[in-house]
Amino acid sequence: MGKRRAGRELLRSLSKKQKKHLREFGEEHPFYDKLLVLLLLHSCFPFQSEDSDKSSAESDSETEVEQVSGYHKLLATLKTSPESESEEEEDESESEAEESEAEMGSEGSQETGEAEGGEEDKNDVPEEEEGTTDTTEQILSQEQADGTDTSCDPRHGEIEEFTDVKHESEFSLETNFMEEESGDCNADKRDSNPFKQHMDKELEDKEIEEMSTLPKTSSQSQWPRLGQLIFSSTLEKHKTLKADKEVDVKQLHLHKPLESTWPKVNKQFLSSVDKPADSSFTPLQRELFCIMNSYRDLFYPERNALINGEEIRHAYCLHALNHVLKANAQVLSNNAKRRDRKPGSDTDDYRDQGLTRPKVLMIVPFRECALRIVHTFISLLEVNDKKKIDVSNKKRFKGEFGSDPEEKPPNLKRPEDYEAVFAGNIDDHFRIGVAILQKSMRLYAPFYSSDIIIASPLGIRTVIGAEGEKKRDFDFLSSVEILIIDQADIYLMQNWEHVLHLMKHINLLPLDSHGVDFSRVRMLNLNNWSKYYRQTLLFSALQDPQINSVFNKHCFNYAGQVAVRNVPLTGSISHVVVQLPHVFRRLEAESVASVIDTRFQFFIDKVLPEYRDAIMSHTLIYVPSYFDYVRLRNYFKKEDLNFTHFCEYSKKAAVCRARRFFLKGEKQFLLFTERFHFYKRYTIKGIRNLIFYELPTYSHFYSEICNMLKATDSGVDATWTCTVLYSKYDAQKLAAVVGIDRTAQMLQSKKNVHLFVTGEN
User: How far is it, in rounded angstroms, from Cα 463 to Cα 479?
Assistant: First the structure.
């Protein structure tokens, strides 16, 4: 009785938010002691022996996996009456309503509660004993309804993910057959089908050797909407692609349902101006899809979240879904042929699969992006309102990838581009498998049963792991046929190493067979030539050497590559509204590797001495690289300079304190990182002198930082200064700031160039 009473007391002490976490995920919040739930379960179900209770919490040497498995053994002994699905939904909606009321009543302590892992709500203390049994039964009924293990919040370290094992047989490619009305049964008979032409092409050993050793030949072409394109390929017989002025949907060889759904889904982007004979594509989508449908690699560095981001997302979703539907239709059609074939017939005619099932890998930065992609897939698969497709785990997906509009602070004012990028759920640690079969979609499919994997760089990195780790897996990447990397510029602000790590582990031979039928595997996969058939679609908001390197060094598509290479004519300096001189000082570096040290030495020897005088107070130093920031911070401390600093890792209190010191002039220098500006976009007041330690990654950040000077009501415009350090290796960034003409002039000069311009020029 004592233990049961103690368990009830523990349950009463839990807030409704904690109870909801226990009910949904089957375990306590990681902030709380892991013994809490074990004691609670033991008190609620006293038929478990004391020895088992002691052994479950006996030592810290047990692994986390063992603790979870022991917990599930406890749950497996429980017996509950089956509840209908509608009752579960009602209970969950009621608990969510109660939670929202509790949060509204404790707004003052919300921020502290989140930082400390959650606080107890005083209104939750007086609970009845009936809540003990009800809460535990809801946990079990939820787990039984899902048919899988529990999961926890992906933002709390290592996670045990939810995967849908309930619908495994329904979405198996090996055990299903083509339905005549569900797809294009005769897709494999179309010789002009781009999918068939690309995947059925048999390369020779000589061609593979040429692609591995010989340099690529390139040619240029001017397209109406995309502008200047660079076509490159090692195989000389591939000709330059021409832009289609008009495109008929029926000539694109789309899978049967997509021909009718695409015009409806894409209608929102079409205006009365863009209506020639083709009314289903915008001019940008028409040219992009023309390249995608030719299965060439594509690099488009002019993606804008405000202007064309959703247009581009819909275009590559159409291409990815069309590819998956055609590939699965071919497999299902061959299943029927194999079933009806005569004994002793040749089985090589049915090679239609890779070594693993995932065909498309989509890398996006935030959960909101994954949510929009899945919604686009669903819209493209639903022919009309009467024929809704069956989407498994849809409610769970909306709960984990959706967002609450009330979570956003009401008075937060940020630029429009910031609002567009950081809309919705901006958690950057996620991954989800999607299986599509005829009229159904399966979310949370295991990777080896998925057709499409949507993940963030961090989410996919934690699965791939690092060399030496026991638990790592990258076999599911072995047969990826389309790789889509959207918003690549944001990964520069997150961690670009995750992208490079992915590119090193894609299209490698798997370490295990994973139950594959080798008689159905294409020869290109068996020969380890998958990377030569993989199409890579890379979308970014800017040109950057690191992004260019991925496209040039990690894309081996035999069909060739297409890169958009438009040069900026004016630059972001034209958007500076304050009148101040811009001084661009050139530093000479022998190589790219020596630029970092050369810039630091140039700064401390020639630039910093000019600003040491007290007259040059209120100096903000903009530092794009965090490593340069740490180096400068350590040097400033060593020299005992009067400065303050903050970066993306600084706490809110430290940032407020530094801003106040800088505004009042108590600190002469302020070190300021680019990633902090990217994620916060604060207006820094009190700036009189600007130093760009390096040109910004985003060109519009240059004008934003310069325009912060107008926030200072000092009226001493003549004392404002702006100094920029650059080298010949910063040509792309420099052109984005000052324009291509000025860049050419500045790079031709071998001496340090002092260029004085104003915002009106």
Answer: 17
Written as six digits, the tokens of 459 are 């989410």
Can you give 411-447 as a three-state secondary structure string? CCCCCHHHHHHCCCCCCCCCEEEEEEECCEEEECCCH
Beta bridge partners of 726: 586
Which residues are within 8 A (CB) of 302 and not within 5 positions of it... i.e. 6 or more apart? 308, 541, 564, 566
pLDDT tens track for 615-662: 788 999 999 999 999 999 999 999 999 999 999 999 999 999 999 999
Least confident of 264-273, 647-656, 716-725, 751-760: 751-760
Tell me how far the alpha carbon of residue 36 is from its chain's centroid.
Answer: 35
Number of Cβ atoms within 10 Å of the Cβ of 656: 13
Domains 207-270+280-338+350-407+414-564 and 570-758 share a fold: yes
The amino acid that residue 401 corresponds to is F
Whole-prediction pTM value? 0.78
Whole-angstrom distance, CA of residue 353 vs CA of residue 328: 9
Beta bridge partners of 563: 230, 299
Q: Which helix (H) or strand (E) holds 499?
A: helix 496-505
CB 729 within 8 A of CB 595: yes
Average pLDDT, whole number, for the chain? 79
| Spatial contact of 726 and 695, defined as CB atoms under 8 Å apart | yes
| Cα(283)–Cα(288) distance, integer angstroms | 9
pLDDT confidence tier of residue 116, bands split at 50, 70 and 90: very low
List 228's β-bridge partners, or say none.
Answer: 222
Give SS3 for 311.
helix
Tokens describing residue 436? 């599509």
Q: Are strands 360-363 and 452-455 parallel, antiparallel or unpaired?
A: parallel
- Cα–Cα distance between 477 and 314 in angstroms, integer? 24
Alpha carbon distance 352, 521 (integer Å): 6
Residue ranges of domains in the chain: 207-270+280-338+350-407+414-564, 570-758
Only one residue has tokens 């007391």, namely 9
Helix (H, G, I), strand (E, B), or coil: what is residue 260? helix
Scanning 639-723, the segments in alpha helix (DSSP H) are 652-664, 674-680, 699-707
Q: Which residues pair with 279 in a beta bridge?
A: none
Q: Does domain 570-758 have CATH number 3.40.1370.10?
A: no
Q: Tell me the CATH class for 207-270+280-338+350-407+414-564.
A: alpha beta
Percent of the chain with pLDDT over 70: 69
